[in-house]
Amino acid sequence: MRGRLIWGVALIAMGAFFLGQQFGLFGELQLPFWAFAFGLLGLIFLFTFLTDRQQWWALIPGCILLGVALLIVNDQNEFITGTQAGALFLFSIGLPFLLIYLVDRRMWWALIPGGVLSVLALITFVSGGDVSGQVIAAIMLFGLAAVFAVLRFVTRSNPYMGWATWVAIILAVIGALVLITGPQAAALVGPAMLIGLGLILLARVYWPRLRSRP
């Protein structure tokens, strides 16, 4: 029943689209068929989720297909620059994962791809301006640090998620080094911090065993 309703509405919308093109209802707006098709298909997936919240997977193709439609429309009309459109497309890939977490707070894993892709979208957006590469690298590291800090906050009741705190701290420190000293110094300090953290973790594992031996 629901499938017939969805495809019935889709066919009506497609027919209306072709009629609108014939009568010039879109004016100077260039709306290619494939943009309409991808957009309509994306809306169908989103409608699938709205009618059944258990179908959270539909958010992923729904948002991505709408992002593809946006790219096609912008390519024909140039509302925004190509860099900005690319940033919005990256965000359209990350957005459904953020929505998945909001739908079900047990799916904390969705914050990782959602947060990382959102940070990459921000980096792509600002890279089109006069921002230096050093500042862009620092923004990326601080953004990733914020993602893992939020991840640790929402999973604070889980003792096995403590690693997210260390990842956030390391990324934030490397970001500060990049911002202050430049990427060259951070390229050396970052791996050194990872080695140090690994040694600390190994010590925490083996030191109690060594102390317990007679």
The helix content, as a percent range, equals over 70%
Please, how many domains?
2
- How would a crystallographer describe the biggest sheet? none
Name the helix and strand elements from N-terminus to C-terminus, one letter apiece. Answer: HHHHHHHH
Low-confidence stretches: none
Structural class estimated from helices and strands:
mainly alpha
Radius of gyration: 23 Å
Question: Using DSSP, what is the number of strands?
Answer: 0
Q: What's the overall geometry?
A: flat
User: How much is the average pLDDT?
Assistant: 80
Number of helices: 8
Distance between the termini: 73 Å
Strand proportion: under 5%
Explain what this protein looks like in three dimensions:
- By secondary structure, the chain is mainly alpha-helical.
- The chain has eight helices and no strands.
- Helix 5 (111-126) packs antiparallel against helix 6 (133-154) and helix 6 runs antiparallel to helix 7 (163-181).
- It is flat and about 70 Å long.
- The N and C termini lie far apart (73 Å).
- The mean pLDDT is 80.
